[in-house]
Amino acid sequence: RMQEQVMKANVGGFDRVARIVVGLVLLSLVVVGPKSLWGLVGQVGLVPLATGLMRFCPFYPLLGISSCPR
């Protein structure tokens, strides 16, 4: 029988705040920056923003790390 995989929070504290801030800064470059490669950079900002808001980074389990207090 297959067990259900649950996304357990692994992003916490400073790591979470930093991801959200970096994501928002990169996304803001789309609005205020020149319309060139900044659009692509801004879209990359979705990744840290999403992982910060969801408190889950899919790479942390692969690396065996977590920034959440145990």
> What percentage of residues falls in helices of 4 or more residues?
55-70%
Largest sheet: none
> Which runs of at least 5 residues are low in confidence (pLDDT < 50)?
none
Strand proportion, as a percent range, falls in under 5%
Shape: elongated
- Per DSSP, the total helix count is 4
Describe this structure in words.
It contains four helices and no strands. It is mainly α and 70 residues long. Helix 1 runs antiparallel to helix 2 and helix 1 runs antiparallel to helix 3 (46-54). The radius of gyration is 15 Å and the shape is elongated. The model has no long low-confidence stretch (mean pLDDT 84). It has helices at residues 13-32, 38-44, 46-54, 59-63.
Can you give keywords for this protein?
70 residues, mainly alpha, 4 helices, 0% strand
